Amino acid sequence: MDNPDKPLIYLIVGARPNFMKAAPLIRALEERAPEIKSLLVHTGQHYDYEMSKAFFEDLDMPDPDIYLGVGSGTHAEQTAKIMISLEKEIFDNRPDLIVVFGDVNSTLAASVVASKLMVPVAHVEAGLRSFDRTMPEEINRIVTDILSDLLFTTERDAIENLRREGIPDEKIHFTGNVMIDTLLTFADKARKSDITERLGLSDRNYAVLTLHRPSNVDVPEVFDGILEALAEVGKNIPVVFPVHPRTKKRLAEFGFLDKFSSDFRTPPAERGILLIDPVKYTEFLALEMKSLFVLTDSGGIQEETTFLGVPCLTLRNNTERPVTLEVGTNILVGTDPHRIIEESAKILRGEGKKGAIPELWDGKASHRIAKIIKTKMEEQK
């Protein structure tokens, strides 16, 4: 039976990026702080539980201890549902610390509820800023950081952002990137994946594409321009496109599926764009590490490609991860078709951006965080 005096922490997850950040911390806490009871709380923000379950299994994560099942809705509706459900859980169990990850609605909701109930908040991946408040994630980041008691940063730019916003130094801890902990844990498994063979691809002879941000896929003119550019890129190299569910919905809604010669079925020949359904984390990691380059509007993929040394073209005008530009392999190309084509052509000519691995991206971030949390719990006794 658990010791009732054992410190209790909640680790809050709700969407796929959270799972990849929480997985190594769960293991690190078990190893470095067994005297702390950690409960995994899944809000159900990504409401397809079977899809979530597949990610959990792929990452060797335990089943959630608490599943709130809040489901879909607008940003306000979803955040409100999480707050209502989580408030009851906190009232019932009175955790000593809430740990939140990244910048999704679950992150914001949990930090607000916890702070109002006087429960300390720890934010993993604090201080990242795109300085673009049209992005809902930017609002989530800013509010979460203001309310957090422990702020764990992935890069030094994040520390300066927090200082400018008035966060005292004693709350800020430069611990490195837990996403890289997960990548290193599953790198061997990814290398052994046969996904490229199944898709008829050869190493370093294809590109990978991901698109999901509303600013890119919800505006027909913007989405169409990106797809036209990618069709041009696809004349020279196969482009593998694992399609996010909401992106797939927009492709059908806007009549864009006719632009593709293959639709979720046929492996590519020597060129063209291959639409495939979403794949497991380790399979996507395999696609990244064996590709010639990646095109994306995702934040986490900018980090993964930097660590892997794979050129990355980010289909956005800004990034909250500037270290991937300053040190890594990332280039911002926005949504200008000419720029997308031009930078892709450079890579095809062997002129892709070379990069280095950022400071403390060494696979030990979760252990640094666990050590700090352990110290915090001891101080609260």
In terms of DSSP E residues, the strand content is 5-15%
Order the strands across the largest sheet as they lie in space.
3-2-1-4-5-6-7
Order of helices and strands: EHEHEHEHEHEHEHHEHHEHEEHEHEHEHH
DSSP strand count: 14
Helix-residue proportion: 40-55%
Q: How many whole angstroms does the radius of gyration measure?
A: 21 Å
Q: pLDDT under 50 segments (min length 5)? A: 263-269
User: Could you give the distance between the termini?
Assistant: 21 Å
Describe the sheet with the most strands.
7 strands, parallel
Mean pLDDT: 92
> Which term fits the overall shape?
globular
SS field, number of helical segments: 16
Structural class by sheet pairing and helices? alpha/beta
Outline the structure in words:
The protein has 381 residues and is of the alpha/beta class. 46% of the residues lie in helices and 14% in strands. The protein contains 16 helices and 14 strands. The chain has helices at 16-32, 49-58, 75-93, 105-116, 136-147, 156-164, 178-191, 195-198, 214-217, 220-233, 245-253, 281-290, 299-308, 323-326, 337-348, 365-380; strands at 8-13, 37-42, 66-67, 97-101, 121-124, 150-153, 172-174, 207-209, 238-242, 262-263, 272-276, 293-296, 312-314, 330-332. The strands form two sheets. It has a seven-stranded parallel sheet with strand order 3-2-1-4-5-6-7, sandwiched between helices. Strands 10-11-9-8-12-13-14 form a seven-stranded parallel sheet, sandwiched between helices. Helix 3 crosses helix 4. The chain is globular. 47% of the residues are buried. The model is unreliable at 263-269 (pLDDT under 50).
